Amino acid sequence: MARDPVSGSRAPVSPGFEEVRIIDSLVAIGRHVPMLLRASLINIELLLALILIGFSIGTLVALCQVYGGRFLGAIAGIYEWIFRSVPALVLLFLFYFGPSQFGLYISSFLAASLALGFRSSAYQSQIFRGAIQSIASGQMMAARSLGMSRPRAILTVILPQAFRLAIPGWSNEFSSVVKDTTLAYAVGLNEIMRSARIIYDRQYQLAMPALIGVAFVFLVLTYAGNGLLGGIERRLQIPGLQMPGQGEKGEFIRRK
Amino acid sequence: MTFDWRWVTPLAQGLLLTIEITTTCIAIGIALGVLLSLGRVYGHRIVRVLCAIYIQFFRGTPLLVQLSIVYFGLPTWGIRLSQFTSAVLALGLNTAAYQAEYFRGAIQAIRGGQMLAARSLGMSAPQAIRHVILPQAFRLVIPAWSNELILMIKYSSIVFSIALYDLMGVGKKIASREFRYFEVFLVVALFYLALVFIVSQALRALERRVRIPGLGAPGEAR
Amino acid sequence: MNSSVGSSPAVLRVEDLHKSYGREEVLRGVSFALGKGETMVVIGPSGTGKSTLLRCINHLTPPDCGRVWLEETEISHHRANLNRIRAQIGFVFQDFNLFSHLTALGNVRIAPTKVRGMSKRDATALAMTELERVGLSNKANSYPAELSGGQQQRVSIARALAMAPKLILFDEPTSALDPELIGEVLDVMTGLARDGMTMLVVSHEMGFARSVADEIVFMEHGRVVEQGPPAQMFAAPEHPRTAEFLRKISELYGESDE
Q1: A40 Cβ partners below 8 Å, 6+ apart?
Q2: Contact C87/B122, CB-based, under 8 Å?
Q3: Domains of chain A, CATH where assigned
Q4: What is the architecture, at CATH level 2, of domain B18-164?
């Protein structure tokens, strides 16, 4: 029989309230970990979907702005400005509740992919535009002088270089947007934050462990994502092909 | 699709709260961010590591998680904060991490010769930092911080999740009451667009006012 | 310009300075003395530690061993107040290093204000005097980016002068300048020497060395190979390496007038 540290008696005594809470919390959280991890997969799915949408539309918008002439360029510019200035949450609500008001059903996953995808396209178009514009105009001239049409020149000469130049900015976008997937909870998506909320709505003491768990998952995702993207960057580097502000190896340098 | 003029007043009140929250958290962010970046550049090894850990955590985890930890998690540890305080605290801590990195970039963009020259005149290190490095760093960091301000205006919308009636919160309240989400949030979007536009223009004017020829920052991407 | 070395009280005394960067020993035991009002010019091939020597003197780069005295005080002592000492030694950098956020006037008066505690009014008056001295009083309100290289360097000299230093160190002051701007800086430096300033100059400008220096030091591989008054060094150097170097430099830079 343990001696009660407070009263000194040897009567059987249960462990202190503090200990019960911590142990119980850890055990309880342990039971929920699989659910949290499964939910995080939804975040990753959403991430991939929105990045893809953002990429395709973003490239289009960038091309419109650089090569589209005054009218198209202006429209593309306005598009970019709107989707960069309106908060993600507002876009999510518009895309989710909007269609249902007009009789169309839309799943929260689709709504979130579109809302966040269009938003990402605005940022990605900025990145691509910078990349395209930093390719020396001599490249286009050389292509045309060989008899290539404008579209062909863009496709075979400009874009391949622009994509490589855009990789650092693009991976920046990637790692910042992975955190935005949590916002989709607001339109009912069963992603990780929603699952965590369900857990601690039922048992308030689990709030901290659950949330720290979620934080941990994201730290891992961010770290892994950065590592992966860094590796891809290095693999695709062409020496000498860099944007102003990048070093020879393509890293961003802030000097000068 | 019908719009109601009566929405404007409550939305405008929400807008005021948005502005209040944003300005407060940015102020916290600047103060804390400068300290963190000074710690990372000039501090002892332990200080540098601690600052780096802080920055990594707040940049690597979603804002929603941070806000939830402050508002839902802290009470389980006995710390109960009001909604406004929680919001401003979470947002402030978050933006401080980003601002610290921008400021560190600005400090490191100042050529090393400036520090050498200051020391050669007999200035102590703190004097040199205060009179030579910081004045230049503050000017160099303005584009990045302007960006961050705009970002915070948008991210402040997240506080509706802890029942704070900022522009977003009011919008949600009206929309769910009248079940006219699309129209209401279209108006909300317009409010945000207007706010972002006005603030961008103001910041650009500020940048122009404070410019010193020859002291320019390399363009900062988003 | 003045009496020969050794008769004036020493303003600067350097004894056996050593400095290594990693495995490379850049200074291998340099010793010399500089008297009040004298101008000493250090010449030698690039990378032989000349700049390092200057930085070790005012401790911008701490030497590995060796001692340095400024007048009677040993400034290499570990308990020396470096900031106070540096305030007494002027330093002119190859890259000027003017404070980009301040005007020329601001640059010259910031140290007297912040380090010596002068009032802003007195410091401004002092700064204008020094800018006048280097011929740039009309550029007082210009920012460094608005000035030519030669003008920037003259401002940086004024900045050093404003602290009334006992000695000014010049680290290749004209090497970063376009050829047509070198003259204005050398003119200022010649004027300073004539006014009795104690100067230690690292430079390639042979014309300046020949006409202004009281003593020339030839350094190579981190050591002092030979030193002596210009007349002796240029006409009859003792060491063969000295002769060789001087000959090469004369070919490169051309003979300049006295």
Answers
A1: A191, A192, A217, A221
A2: yes
A3: 32-236 (1.10.3720.10)
A4: Orthogonal Bundle (1.10)
